């Protein structure tokens, strides 16, 4: 019987975030495929895990992927870990998952930290609809095309960025989205110097005129404002049910009327709105 590929999340800074199940799985597999074997070895030493390691990264993923699949076919269980966080999120792993699926190999995950999601929940931006954009290309034209393609997206946007490219990225974002677009610069998550700066793109560019960017960053950008012609019937789409009911009440409706109107707007049963309003 073929083995299983385990995608194992590792900490994004704080070793305390390494889960007991992650340790258990790394201790039980036959082989660990790591993006950076030295870094993974440090983690394994810290948790007393001794297992064979092999490298699996951007530059060897084609050949190494085939090798890993051949071992899985022989019945070996293999864990894949990235540098930090969740494999296959702006990390090698995506291709290995596809290859395993093509070869009928079972793939499962041991979930854990994702920098983008943690930055999003700390940003104070709308978390109901968001788009993960990963890294911008180093190629100037591709960067601009990427930014232009999400300029009018009303969802919250999440970008990863390296410190040495931060200033240029903020300048490009300001040029494309405008200086008043809100941004949260989320830095060094779960580490000693964790910092969240909530400002707009003008403020962010001004801050880094003097400061030198240091550490790892996630940039969370507010979505574009809804266009009025789209919002006529759905002005409430950015509100939670509770917020919408409260808005009607503030405008003078009784709570019963407000619940009824909210249910009509959303074309859902009144009971659903009632339950959401009273019990959450
Ligand atoms: N797979 C990882 C995940 O689950 O988030 C992401 C790996 S990607 C190669 C590395 C990028 O993630 C960094 O450049 C930074 O943008 C972001 N990142 C990773 N750790 C972070 C941290 N502790 N604080 C802020 N951003 C972080």
Helix content: 40-55%
Strand order in space, largest sheet: 3-2-4-1-5
Strand content: 15-25%
Main beta-sheet strand count, sense and barrel state: 5 strands, parallel
Q: Spell the H/E element sequence.
A: EHEHEHEHEHEHEHEEHEHHHH
Strand segment tally? 10
**First and last CA, distance:** 47 Å
> Helix segment count?
12
Structural class, judged by helices and strands?
A: alpha/beta
Unreliable residue stretches: none
Each distinct ligand: S-adenosylmethionine
| Morphology call | globular
Properties at a glance:
10 strands, 18% strand, five-stranded mixed sheet, globular, alpha/beta, binds S-adenosylmethionine, 12 helices, 280 residues
If you had to describe this structure to a student in words, what would you say it looks like?
There is one protein chain. By secondary structure, the chain is of the alpha/beta class. It has twelve helices and ten strands. Helix 3 (61-73) packs across helix 4 and helix 7 (166-177) runs antiparallel to helix 8 (201-210). Helix 6 (140-150) links the parallel strand 6 (130-135) and strand 7.
């Amino acid at each position: 019987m073929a083995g299983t590929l385990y995608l194992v999340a590792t900490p994004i800074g704080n070793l305390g975030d390494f889960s007991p199940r992650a340790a258990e799985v790394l201790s039980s597999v036959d082989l660990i495929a790591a993006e950076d074997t030295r870094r993974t070895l440090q983690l394994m030493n810290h948790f007393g895990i001794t297992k064979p390691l092999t490298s699996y990264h951007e530059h060897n993923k084609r050949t190494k992927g085939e090798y890993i699949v051949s071992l899985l076919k022989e019945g070996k269980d293999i864990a894949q870990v990235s540098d930090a966080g969740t494999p296959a999120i702006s990390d090698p792993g995506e291709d290995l998952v596809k290859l395993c699926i093509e070869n009928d190999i079972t793939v499962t995950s041991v979930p854990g930290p994702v920098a983008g999601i943690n930055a999003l929940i700390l940003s104070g931006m709308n978390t109901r609809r968001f788009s993960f954009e990963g890294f911008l290309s180093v190629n100037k034209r591709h960067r601009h095309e990427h930014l232009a393609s999400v300029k009018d997206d009303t969802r919250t946007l999440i970008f990863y960025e390296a410190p040495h490219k931060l200033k240029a990225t903020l300048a490009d974002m300001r040029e494309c989205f405008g200086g008043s677009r809100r941004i949260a610069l989320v830095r060094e998550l779960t580490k000693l110097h964790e910092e969240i700066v909530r400002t707009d793109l003008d403020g962010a560019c001004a801050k880094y005129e003097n400061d030198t960017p240091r550490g790892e960053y996630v940039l969370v950008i507010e979505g574009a404002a809804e266009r009025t012609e789209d919002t006529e019937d759905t002005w409430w789409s950015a509100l939670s049910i509770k917020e919408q009911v409260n808005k009607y009440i503030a405008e003078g409706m009784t709570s019963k009327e407000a619940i009824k109107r909210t249910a009509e707007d959303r074309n859902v049963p009144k009971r659903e709105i009632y339950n959401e309003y009273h019990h959450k």
